[in-house]
Amino acid sequence: MVGMPANDGTRDGWYLLLIPESKGVRCEWKRLSYDAAAANASMRESGRSDGYATALITGLWPSMDSLPAEEKRLRGSALSVSPLTISSGY
Fold first, then answer.
1. Is 85 helix (H, G, I), strand (E, B) or coil?
2. Which of the chain's termini has less CB crowding within 10 Å, N or C?
3. Which spans in 22-80 are helix H?
4. CA distances (Å), origin 67, targets 20, 24, 44, 55
5. pLDDT value at residue 83
């Protein structure tokens, strides 16, 4: 199961890679491409022909009711996330 796209107008999912380093942990968000058309077809075949099935193709969420205003404003803007290192403090 991949989950929903990031509401950024792409079909991609995301995962977080945690890489141990000598002074902490490096965190890298990675895009995950998958067969969105097949996932959409599977949802529709199972009777889920709602906005969530469509979101797999459009990369846009069907509802943004609970999102903060800034996230609503950024809808459809492709994400780009830089790596981050979290220091252990030792």
1. strand
2. N
3. 36-45, 51-58, 69-73
4. 32, 32, 26, 16
5. 83
Q: What is the crossing angle of helices 51-58 and 36-45, to 10°?
A: 170
- Between CA 54 and CA 56 the distance in angstroms is 5
3-state helix, strand, coil in the chain (%, to 5): 25, 25, 50
pLDDT digits over 2-23, tens only?
678 999 999 999 888 999 998 8
Residue 16 CB partners (closer than 8 Å, separation 6+)? 27, 28, 29, 30
Question: How much of the chain exceeds pLDDT 70, in percent?
Answer: 96
